[in-house]
Design a protein that fits this description.
Blueprint: E1 3-4, E2 8-13, E3 27-32, E4 37-41, E5 46-47, E6 53-58, H1 59-62, E7 65-76, E8 84-97
Parallel strand pairs: 1-8
Antiparallel strand pairs: 2-6, 3-4, 3-7, 5-6, 7-8
Length: 98
């Protein structure tokens, strides 16, 4: 299915890492394309009735192109000075056409 500018999108975020809990620990995502970027923090996401974290994107804001998602998970880990190990993952989220 092709996506076009003007479409409003909703995605479910699922982060898995040993020692990490989406309910208890902090995380955020950054959505970007060739010219724009938007940061979505955990507290700005929608928590549905099944305790899934959802976020929305209005393609009218970003325009056409490949949308990248960079996920930051802050994993509790006593081996680090601040007690947190930051895990970063980046991938193509979707492609939007004009």
């Amino acid at each position: 299915m092709a996506l076009y500018v003007g479409t409003e999108l909703k995605f479910q975020l699922d982060i898995t890492s040993e020692g990490f809990s989406m309910a208890d620990d902090d995380f955020m995502v950054v959505i970007s394309n060739h010219s724009k970027k938007m940061e979505i923090k955990k507290e700005d996401m929608i928590l549905d009735e099944n305790e899934h974290y959802l976020f929305t994107i209005d393609t009218a804001f970003f325009g056409s192109g490949d949308y990248m998602i960079t996920t930051y998970a802050y994993v509790p880990d006593e081996d680090f000075d601040d007690g947190i190990r930051t895990e970063v993952q980046k991938q193509v989220l979707c492609q939007v056409k004009s």
